[in-house]
Write a structure and sequence with these properties.
The complex is a heterodimer of chains A (about 700) and B (about 375). Chain A has about 700 residues and is of the alpha+beta class. Chain A has 25 helices and 22 strands. With about 375 residues, chain B is mainly alpha-helical. Chain B is about 70% helix and about 5% strand. The chains are: A alpha+beta (about 700), B mainly alpha (about 375).
């Protein structure tokens, strides 16, 4: 309803409309020009920018190589582990976060307060980052959590790889454990040309460490799509836009086939029960290590994703040192098992022969000192064979005396593998010790005394060996003198199972024994186990020709009145160490085994049964046609009784040894090697607290309490 | 039987002729603006579904948008039933009610993203500043309808209209909502200048602007607003900070290239690199996924809409209708121009929604009412 007189004004207005049309065209034209510039002219560049925005390279961890025993049985595997995580962002967005936590607490059996506590600790990180609530969920827990998934927004189960030792604590020292690379290791590692990043997994101990470069694969890389906050897109969104052909697949690490036979390992562990000590079994024909265990042990699986400080403390505080590899990290006095070396030296040097006899009256006098035999009554006339069988100390005092210099014994000990590192593929091996005249002068500034040679002759004094050396010594004797380097890795295989490298035996010393020496030593050792007068007759294996030598070593200095005290009435830490080393079958030996049982009292009652069990297992499984249970049963009907183990150690070979104080003092100084700290949860490397008394002398086993 | 057979066609004939009369009227009815509105809104909803597909919290927003459009359609029907001169009569009343609402926002308003722009009415939350744009246009159309000034306005003539504009503008600036305030000023200025201002006055005003601009920049703007201006001139000065939005938006649009990345495949928006992609930066989503061709189609639709609107104003036979239609078209023009200019990096970043495309109830409702009024004016032109 226009007013009159408006018409003129409207016409005037209408004329001005051309300006408006003009403005509209100019305005929109400008915009179109801009769009031409952005989308048509610089579109390629803009597309590139947008791609750079959305893609991020992330690493795909390569699976670590696996470890198998000699029969291709899996020992270490990469297994999935399930962790429970909460993404706080989604939890706080849902209104029923309280209900979620309470439901979750019931499913995973964790108090609600604890869950809130974990969440509170993670407050400072971005809320879209998952917070780990519980690691290693059981399959049942995973199933329940998954079934309640829709009712628990923000709760998720994350799958991760966990390095798993299938047999738990069996052979942990040899297989080792892994841990995360920490910031202190990183510079040295990468200087060597490797490419590790913080948080990468690296072998920290055992074969996992020594063969790190073999076991480690090459990480792959994939391009993932991220949003503006750097969150990786998952699920449906991913398949829609991701370009998968840009992925670089990871190359898995190589697998190791070990020389170890898991059957023997298990047999050894079973025979050890809860005893403390070690066992090493070697194939005397090539130096392959068939079994190698150290007890007590630990489960490396617990280390694979960061060990809890509490567990680490517990392992450190354990006075039986589960973290230490007792096969090669600890020195032991070999005791009577060393007598074979004296015998070989005597025979080879011609100071004794098969006709040489000495009369043992229970002791002998040298100068103004009396040297005792373990038998108070004496053994009467003994030759080298019966002396070995009965472990007559006097015979070996005499032999040592006849050899004149301790250096001759030392030379033969070295030919047979003592007093130097075997060079097995494991770190922290201790060398052992074989005293010489020159050594003593250098070490103590005192000349060697003739009496000391006598003690060396029976394996006392400064003589120190490791379990591994002892096994290798007996392997060397078993094959007639060839010393092999013991080794653990038989083959390296690609992840597809193709053999990439085979390890060949390596000869360290070729000094062959004269056939006569070889025969006499074997006869002596045969007597130990198979002659009714032998110290370990009760351990015989009829039909298997199991031979060996026992040893019992006092660990504290005993006053004369205590020497013949019953061992099992002493305090545990004062009890003698038990040692046994042997091989089988006597004719063509295929396995040599040495076992050391700390505070086991008697070599033949504590250590021999373990060696026996391993040898029996080996012969039965590898030569069932000759040593099968049924075949032997038919041949040795009456003899196949369970051996009766004497209750007391009357026949043991503990001797009253009036050693130089220096010898005991030096053994005391054999400080244990501190175990390498793995990554602890929440503890920075270097701040690991020392276990109580780690540095004090209480840690040294030869010490008096 | 025969008798009844002869008689029966008669009522049907009558009905047909009556129908014919309605048809005639319906044929003459100008549907073009409503048709364009529906097309733009449909594209808007389609685009909005893509833009809100990623984040859970914005997942169902298009439903709210549909609801607001439904309410708008009902209001459209109501508006089409009355003569638009009712706005002439209610002009000042609407203006003052709206002014009260704006004041209410400052007192009891709801905050979001650091600004107080909303006021709750029942279950709804409305933005009085959006509606103010229309109220302002109605008010100014009413004011100039009776104006008899010859030869253009001088300063004295401009005093009252300026006051009418500056009071709500001030209330909106303190919310703060610079974008809406700017639209309000630009729209009002367009209407005033269309009514003619004396050349001398224009020159003096221009000089005042030149003098005042640096002072306002220095003392009148908040730091973040100043930052936006700097970013506009040189977005790369702070690419992760204030320049981020502008850069990401340009990347989004540019990376769409000729044909776009495809529906729901726009990585810039789907992966949240693009900020506010369901409101102010909605065109970037469109540009990224539909490319240059899609953009030309959309701008073509807006152009058709604006030209149609101008046509309605041009053909209006009364001054109020003409000014009202003109004002409404002006609102749309500035929205489209400023929003697109901003997302393309031609203009600084100010919060101005894109009509029918951006998410936002008040803005959509205002737009729909505006179209209804335009259509009303278009179809009443023969009544005089």
């Amino acid at each position: 309803m226009a007013f009159l007189g408006q018409e003129e004004q409207i016409r005037e207005f209408q004329e001005r409309f051309k300006f408006l049309y003009f403005t509209v065209f100019i305005g929109l034209g400008l915009l179109i020009a801009r769009l031409v510039y952005l989308q048509v002219l610089t579109g390629d560049k803009m597309r590139l920018y947008s791609e750079e925005n959305r893609f991020k390279r992330v690493k795909i961890a390569s699976p670590r190589g696996m470890l198998f025993d000699r029969k291709h049985r899996l020992l270490i595997d990469n297994r999935p582990a399930f962790d429970l995580e909460i993404i706080p962002q989604y939890l706080s967005e849902s209104k029923q976060s309280k209900e979620v936590i309470s439901l979750l607490s019931r499913i995973i059996q964790m108090p609600e307060a604890k869950i809130y506590e974990i969440l509170a600790k993670a407050k400072n990180q971005p809320s879209f980052m998952p917070v780990k609530i519980k690691t290693d969920l059981s399959r049942d827990e995973v199933a329940v959590v998954e079934s309640w998934r829709l009712d628990m927004p923000g709760v998720q189960v994350q799958e991760e790889i966990k390095r798993t030792n299938i047999y738990g604590d069996v052979a942990s020292h040899l297989l080792g454990y892994i841990g995360e690379v920490n910031s202190t290791e990183l510079p040295t590692l990468n200087k060597a040309g490797q490419r590790y990043a913080l948080g990468d997994v690296i072998g920290k101990f055992g074969l996992e460490k020594e063969l790190e470069s073999t076991l480690r694969g090459v990480d792959g890389e994939k391009i993932v799509e991220v949003d503006a906050l750097g969150r990786i897109k998952i699920g449906k969104e991913k398949s829609r836009v991701i370009d998968t052909h840009q992925e670089k697949l990871p190359v898995p690490g190589k697998n190791l086939i070990l020389t170890i036979d898991q059957d023997l390992q298990l047999a050894a562990v079973e025979a050890f029960k809860d005893k403390i000590g070690s066992l090493v079994a070697v194939d005397p024909r090539n130096g392959e290590i068939l079994a190698m265990i150290s007890r007590p042990s630990f489960d490396p699986t617990e280390f694979s994703r960061g060990i809890s400080p509490a567990l680490w403390q517990k392992l450190l505080a354990n006075e039986n040192h589960p973290l230490r590899d007792k096969t090669l990290q600890d020195h032991y006095s070999p005791g009577s098992t060393f007598k074979v070396v004296t015998a070989i030296a005597g025979l080879e040097e011609g100071v004794i022969d098969e006709r040489t006899t000495f009369k043992c009256t229970g002791s002998m006098r040298v100068g103004n000192r009396i040297y005792h035999c373990h038998s108070k009554r004496g053994h009467g006339d003994v030759n080298v064979v019966s002396a070995l069988a009965q472990s007559c100390d006097v015979f070996f005092y005499r032999t040592a005396q006849a050899l004149k210099s301790v250096d001759t014994i030392a030379m033969w000990a070295k030919h047979l593998g003592l007093a130097k590192k075997t060079g097995v593929n494991l770190a922290r091996e201790v060398p052992g010790l074989m005293p010489t005249e020159e050594w003593k002068l250098r070490r103590f500034g005192q000349p060697w005394s003739a009496g000391e040679t006598l003690l060396v002759g029976i394996g006392q004094s400064f003589v120190l060996t490791t379990g591994l050396q002892l096994a290798n010594l007996y392997a060397s004797i078993a094959n007639g003198g060839t010393l092999y380097r013991p080794y653990l890795v038989k083959e390296i295989e690609s992840y597809e199972g193709k053999v990439l490298k085979e390890f060949k035996p390596e000869v360290l010393d070729q000094t062959r024994l004269q056939p006569k020496t070889y025969q006499l030593i074997k006869q002596g050792l045969w007597g130990v186990v198979n002659n009714p007068t032998g110290t370990s007759y009760h351990q015989r294996l009829p039909g298997m020709d199991f031979v060996g030598k026992s040893g019992t070593v006092q660990v504290v200095r005993l006053s004369a009145d205590k020497v013949y005290q019953k061992c099992d009435t002493m305090k545990f830490r004062d009890r003698h160490n038990a040692v046994f080393a042997g091989f089988a079958p006597a004719k063509d030996p295929v396995i040599a085994v040495a076992a050391i049982v700390e505070h086991g009292c008697g070599g033949s009652i504590a250590a021999a049964p373990i060696v026996r069990a391993v040898i029996k297992k080996y012969l039965e499984t590898y030569y069932p046609d000759i040593y099968g249970e049924k075949i032997l049963a038919a041949r040795f009907k009456d003899q196949l009784k369970v051996p009766k183990i004497p209750k007391h150690t009357d026949d043991s070979d503990v001797v009253q040894v009036e050693e130089e104080d220096a010898a005991i003092k030096m053994r005391r100084e054999q400080k244990p090697v501190a175990p390498l700290a793995p990554n602890l949860i929440g503890i920075e490397p270097g701040t690991v607290p020392k276990p109580a008394g780690a540095d004090s002398e209480s840690d040294s086993r030869e010490e008096e309490e | 039987m025969v008798h009844s057979a002869l008689e029966s066609p008669t009522p049907i004939e009558t009905e047909t002729s009556r129908m014919g009369m309605y048809e005639e009227e319906l044929k003459k009815f100008n549907w073009s603006l409503i048709a364009l509105e529906v097309i733009l809104f449909a594209l808007g909803i389609w685009n909005l579904i893509s833009a809100t597909a990623v984040e859970d919290k914005s997942l169902g927003l298009y439903k709210t948008q549909l609801l607001w459009f439904g309410i708008g359609i009902i209001l459209t029907a109501v508006i089409l039933l009355v003569h638009y001169s009712i706005f002439s009569r209610l002009g000042y009343f609407l203006y003052f009610v709206n002014l009260l609402l704006l004041a209410a926002v400052l007192v009891v308003g709801r905050s979001s993203l650091g600004a107080k722009r909303w006021v709750g009415i029942g279950p709804f939350s409305i933005q009085p500043s959006e509606i103010m744009k229309l109220s302002m246009v109605v008010c100014l159309a009413k004011y100039f309808e009776t104006d008899r000034t010859v030869g253009g306005f001088g300063f004295r003539d401009l005093l009252l209209p300026a006051l009418l504009v500056l009071v709500p503008t001030g209330l909106i600036i303190v919310q703060p909502d610079l974008g809406t305030a700017m639209i309000l000023v630009l729209t009002s200025a367009t209407m005033i200048f269309f009514n003619r201002v004396k050349t001398r006055t224009m020159l003096i005003l221009g000089m005042c602007f030149v003098v005042a601009a640096p002072i306002v920049y220095r003392f009148g703007l908040k730091p973040y607003q100043r930052q936006r201006l700097i970013s506009f001139i040189d977005p790369m000065a702070d690419p992760k900070g204030s320049g981020y939005n502008s850069i990401q938006s340009m990347i989004a649009i540019g990376s769409g290239q000729l044909v776009g990345k495809g529906y729901r495949k726009g990585t810039q928006s789907q992966l949240n690199f693009l900020p506010e992609h369901h409101t102010d930066f909605i065109f970037s989503v469109w540009g990224e996924e539909r490319g240059f061709i899609g953009c030309i189609i959309l701008i073509g639709l807006y152009l058709a809409f604006l030209l149609n609107g101008l046509g309605v104003a041009y053909q209006s036979h009364d001054k109020f209708g003409l000014l009202l239609a003109l004002g409404i078209v002006t609102i749309f023009f500035w929205h489209v121009f400023i929003n697109l200019g901003m997302v393309c990096g031609l203009l600084p970043i100010v919060g101005v929604p894109l009509p029918f495309m951006s998410y936002g109830g008040s803005s959509l409702l205002t737009s729909v009412i505006c179209v209804a009024i335009l259509t009303n004016i278009a179809n009443k032109k023969f009544m005089f």
